[in-house]
Amino acid sequence: MSMKIWAAVTVAVALVLGAVTAPVASALPEKTSFVDPNLKVTSVTLGRTSVVVSGLNTVAVPVTVVGGYTTTGSYKIYLNVFLDRTGGTGPARYMVAALLTLASGTNQSGTWTGVLYVPSTANGTFKVNGVMQGQIIDGSDGGMTTPTPFAGPTITVTGVHLPKIGVSIIPKVVPFGSAYKARVAITDATTGKPYGSRINVQITFDNLCVEYDGDRYLTNTAGVVERSFPAGAADAVNCVRLRGRAFDTAGLHWWVARPGIVAAAPSKTSVKVGTVVPVNGSVAGAPARCPVILQRLYGATVWRGVSQAVVRQSGRFTVLAQPPYVGNVIYRVYFPRCWQYQAGYSKPFTIRGL
């Protein structure tokens, strides 16, 4: 699988309500990969040096590769040309001219031709940086090949009326074990209005956010569509993908917001003044490495932090209480907002100082 496909995240200007946006590469591991030793590239040519693209349209740019592929047979060889962004502010980070076919010569020494479909979201400059053989470049075949490096030509893209992706999660904070919905709206970022056509989008989760084709939905003419997610999807990255011919032209990835549910109890409820008392507890969802703060009640209404710890991989934690005076000392554990987990408190509990 191409490392570029695995790690890249194409994010348009977007708003997500009830979620935390995050690059999918942080949720999914990198894969070991290698360059195909059988592929030799002599030249790559683009049919145009600049294009102007508007809205959801694409512009077809001819692509030609001269090279060869060492094979023992005469089966059909497809080549794919990768371009990386070198400048500009469009959301697309890379482009691919996919499935170039042999136009003349042989597999070992020939000329391949095909088309690069350039979207408006490529606004900026792109440079050819590699070529890869194969019919599948999204990793769905389990391949780990990276493009053969090749410093090729540059194309300048002027994108106008780029798509803006907005997402609302229903409900905004999703309870554990509950299904939920994502409401997606795609509009013209320049005018703020819908494009007036029905748009094919992928709204999905987990590995389908970076490989294969995801679950497809069709917006209404206002650019709006809803998708229901099963409860288990909330534990994985979710996404919207605007899919081009061979790569995502725009997209958005997010984590569903979760409630901060905290439970805590002291290991002892009465000790001599100054004795350290472990307070054990847990946070629902096991948000590992997030902080928890033991708070003590001062007076009637003021809570102040007195010790701190982090949530372990198991979701459990231990903070330390130390009653400073004789009598009932009231504590609670505070979980501040961390990633997609909302802030929360445990029920207050008492340790009596003797």
Describe, in plain words, how this protein is organized in 3D.
With 354 residues, the protein is mainly β. It has one helix spanning 3-7, and strands spanning 14-17, 19-21, 34-35, 39-46, 50-54, 58-69, 79-87, 94-105, 110-119, 124-133, 145-146, 148-149, 154-160, 163-170, 180-188, 200-205, 216-218, 224-229, 238-243, 248-256, 262-266, 270-271, 277-283, 291-298, 302-310, 316-321, 327-335, 344-345, 349-353. Strands 4, 5, 6, 7, 8, 9, 10, 12 and 13 form a 9-stranded mixed beta sheet that branches. A hairpin with a 6-residue loop joins β7 and β8.
Give the count of helical stretches.
Answer: 1
Low-confidence regions: 1-15, 22-32
Instruction: Give the strand tally.
Output: 29
Helix content: under 10%
Content of β-strand: over 45%
Derived from helix and strand composition plus strand pairing, the structural class reads mainly beta
Shape: elongated
What string gives the helices and strands in order?
A: HEEEEEEEEEEEEEEEEEEEEEEEEEEEEE
In summary, what is this structure?
The protein has 354 residues and is an all-beta fold. The protein has one helix at 3-7, and strands at residues 14-17, 19-21, 34-35, 39-46, 50-54, 58-69, 79-87, 94-105, 110-119, 124-133, 145-146, 148-149, 154-160, 163-170, 180-188, 200-205, 216-218, 224-229, 238-243, 248-256, 262-266, 270-271, 277-283, 291-298, 302-310, 316-321, 327-335, 344-345, 349-353.
